[in-house]
TrEMBL record:
Keywords: Hydrolase, Metal-binding, Zinc. It comes from Acetobacter musti. This is M20/M25/M40 family metallo-hydrolase. Pfam families: M20_dimer, Peptidase_M20. The keyword Zinc applies. PROSITE patterns: ARGE_DAPE_CPG2_1 (PS00758), ARGE_DAPE_CPG2_2 (PS00759). Its cofactor is Zn(2+).
Amino acid sequence: MKMSPEDLSSFLAELREWVSIETPTASPEKVDALGRLIISRAREAGLAAEVHGGNRDIHGAPLGDHMVLYDPERMSNEKGILLLGHIDTVHPSGTLAGGLPWRQDGDRLYGPGIADMKAGVLLAFRVLAGFSRKSPLPIRMLIVSDEEIGSPSSRRLIEEEAARAKYVLVTEPGRPGNGIVSGRKGVGRYFLSCHGRPAHSGRAHAEGRSAIRELAHQILALEAMTDESRGITVNVGLIEGGTGANVVAEHASAVVDLRVPDEATGTEMNGRILGLKAADPDVELTVEGAINRPGYVKDRGIAALVEKAERISRADGQEIFDLSTGGGSDGNFSAAMGVPTLDALGVVGHGAHTLQEHIEISSIPVRWNLLTELVMQG
């Protein structure tokens, strides 16, 4: 089951083809272009493909299709293995031609979405195509198009597929040093909107009620909710407001990211954020949002998967370690259902969501062996 030099060369050539198709979440036509390529390759390999289209985000904007791939000769009611990943990325179109071109620097290979998570999806796809008829358990693969915005349209499908699985293997990027993930924080996303009273900032300043001033109060209140000792972080990551320097701002808004260690803390923080009140009674404050990913806590089932991964790695002459992280993934959903879930099984990478995003080429054969053995040991 070792990856041959020819297999590695073929993998890198196909990965470049995937990375050359930029797939920002908000460009469903681009996401679907890569999806069509994957489906074509799946059918060439004798796999069936279910396409789930018509997806939309929480604001009604269209999203790309989701795909379920499987071997039609291995269809069964037996609980099997779910390989889980996404092909949408955070990088806007044009990144490949601009700040993050495909390039190799020693063992590092750069490109938009290469680590998060096209290399991992390709790895899982090749394992499915190569071992679906050899594995003791049936294998299904789910590829979604909206993970980077919290999986609003794919969550139901993820949970449906996870309910069919004995365990779930998520090929998000492996951590430097050959790390995998056995726990993740829960994630919340919130939208604040302030509506004040506009006025000329010179001759009628006193008549105005500044939405920006109100938002500033709310930003300070939100950031003060961060409690590192409890594993809670609240980050105001986007703000907008005003129409001109000489106008008391009528509108201002912000987008807030929340990370929590467990469900109970998520419930607490969700209530605190949704319960915010305007500091100025003449400004209307609206707060919307919710926990969109439950906490993912290492339990006995996950610990057993970690032990299996450790045994496989030692037999391959490798050391592996597991960790919990603040970043969320679609593995949060399956783990919260009680389905043993192991995450960050993809190619080792770093710099996700930045112009330094890359993978370590030398980790590809190592991760190939780990994933194939996890599948073949059932």
